[in-house]
């Protein structure tokens, strides 16, 4: 955020996305299932500036993770 402010930027966009993966076997399968997307995958958060340049991307989280929960976990 400080880097964007130093460059004169005023807008930072945050967006979460689900990267679809194959279904895992066993109980580990349940955490990666996103009911919203009705598929299995990993959840990522991305920060971009107003010119759509990538500033930061989070570590992978289970697919059922909500955007707000992930943002709080990363102190955004």
Walk me through what this model shows.
The chain is 21% helix and 37% strand. The protein has 76 residues and is of the alpha+beta class. Strands 1, 2, 3, 4 and 5 form a five-stranded antiparallel sheet that branches. The termini are close together. The mean pLDDT is 77.
Q: Which structural class best describes the helix and strand composition?
A: alpha+beta
Number of beta strands: 5
The secondary-structure element order is HEHEEEEH
Query: What ranges have pLDDT less than 50 throughout 5 or more consecutive residues?
Result: none
The portion of residues forming beta strands comes to 35-45%
Measured on Cα atoms, how large is the radius of gyration?
15 Å
Distance between the termini: 10 Å
Total DSSP helices:
3
Q: Which percent bin holds the helix content?
A: 10-25%
Largest sheet, described in full? 5 strands, antiparallel
Please render the helix and strand layout as text.
Elements: H1 2-6, E1 12-20, H2 28-31, E2 33-34, E3 39-49, E4 54-57, E5 61-62, H3 67-73
In short:
With 76 residues, the chain is α+β, with helices and mostly antiparallel strands. It is 21% helix and 37% strand.
């Amino acid at each position: 955020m400080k880097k964007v402010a130093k460059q004169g930027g005023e807008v930072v966009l945050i967006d979460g996305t689900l990267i679809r993966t194959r279904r895992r076997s066993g109980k580990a399968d349940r955490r990666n299932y996103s009911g919203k997307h009705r598929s299995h995958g990993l959840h990522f958060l991305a920060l971009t500036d107003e010119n759509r340049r990538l500033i930061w991307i989070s570590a992978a989280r289970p697919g059922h993770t909500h955007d707000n929960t992930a943002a709080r976990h990363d102190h955004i």
